[in-house]
Amino acid sequence: MTEPLGDEPILSVRNLKKHYPITEGVLSREVGAARAVDGISFDLHPGETLGLVGESGCGKSTAASSIIRLEEATDGEVIFNGGDRWGRRPEDGSHPNDVTRFDDEELMSFRRDAQMIFQDPSSSFDPRMSVGASVAEPLMVHGMNDKTQRREIVEDLLERVGLSADDYERYPHEFSGGQKQRIALARALVLNPELIVADEPVSALDVSIRAEILSLISDLQDEFGLSMLFISHDMSVIREVCDRVAVMYLGEIVEIGDAEDVFSDPQHPYTEALLSAIPTPDPRTDRKDIELRGTVPSPTDPPDGCRFHTRCHRVIQPADIDMVQEHWRSLLNFRDQAAAGGIDVESAREVVRVEAEGEEPSDAAVKEEIRSEFELPESLSDAAAEETLDESLDLLLAGDEAAASERLGSAFTTPCEQSDPELTDHGDGHRSACLLHDADQESQDIAAADD
Fold it and tell me: Partner of 124 at 20 to 30 A CA spacing, among 49, 265, 285, 364?
């Protein structure tokens, strides 16, 4: 096992991408791609736990399987353990330690030093093998032929993870979910790795068991000097176990920094929303839960600009519009639904008709119902915006959806959909990708120029 090279990262991920082709027709012609992971970069240092967090479907697990090379990356580099451990210099100029380019022999060596813990412990084991044989299998694969020695190592590890050496001959169905995850930890540690990639290791467990497994992971990490990439959708779990946090949304990292900084001072609206969802036991805590309203985009067709702008509660207003932020979000949601043909005028008309006990509803009443559906006020504070909205509603009631959509789309735009934000440094390695910080920086630059 190679020692980490000083303060160099044990793992450096650079512009990693994993795209899945979308095909159609008998000839499986490629017509697009699902961008599950779309250019993420981060470093993991020796002994550190980095949390990769985000909603289900954001690409976390795909990133993990691409890093450990259970799946082949589409592009990017995964540099493991710094320097030239293989004694070679690729002619194409690539890094000699790029896992994505390892041949079979190099990949076998990498797998001794990097192990993975999966989400569902029940599906991680062959039901026909005893748990001892399952834990010992990596030793046999990597050349340890002495059966007695293998058994001694496995029995010791079973005891270290809180089980008994006598459990060696038992089968997976004889254990609870928490016990199976302990066995999975033993199997991950059996080759004495440097890196553990833990993909939602406690999400399939009861809440009462999670704390025990998290405490065990922390103890084993200290004992074995492990570096860990810890993947979860649960911010409260990330807060408990991680030194640093990378927040992922729709295939991209939108914020990264020390856990304390990210949790105490989130710099991206998506991170704010995730943190607001953490339950708090103190009823006196004055905290506003953030509801994400809007269109959930698809990785097959991510939106232009900031990918979060279709749901962002702080989406930027253009210079010529000034209204309550919540109303601006509702207005953009209405615009997007109109563009997608999602405004059901007849349904709104029927709702009003039922409420009026069968009387034919007026256009004003139908418009009021549509406004209510999209949480739009009776009148927008911005007069020009209100005029445009009312004209668009008239077009919708007249059945001209295309004209209404064009009117809304030309009048209501946000800088967030026109420019892709870069990661901005907030100090001490805390970075986020949000145009709000670009606007703040521009204001500071203008003020400095005026001085």
Answer: 49
Q: Report yes or no: 376 and 327 within 8 Å, Cβ to Cβ.
A: yes
Statement to judge: residues 241 and 385 lie in one domain = no
Q: Could you tell me if 183 and 332 lie in one domain? A: no
Asked whether 361 and 349 are in contact (CB, 8 A), the reply is: yes
Mean pLDDT highest for which of 28-32, 279-283, 292-296, 334-338? 334-338
What strands lie across the sheet with 431-433, from one edge to the other? Answer: 114-117, 195-199, 227-232, 49-53, 244-249, 252-258, 431-433, 423-425
Average pLDDT of the chain, as a whole number:
89
What's the whole-model pTM score?
Answer: 0.89
244 Cβ neighbours under 8 A, 6+ residues apart: 48, 49, 50, 51, 256, 257, 258, 259, 429
Nearest Cα neighbor of 4 from 221, 193, 197, 194 is: 194
Write the CATH number for 19: 3.40.50.300
* Residue range(s) defining the domain that contains residue 107: 11-250
Q: Is the pLDDT of residue 440 over 70?
A: no
pLDDT of residue 451: 44
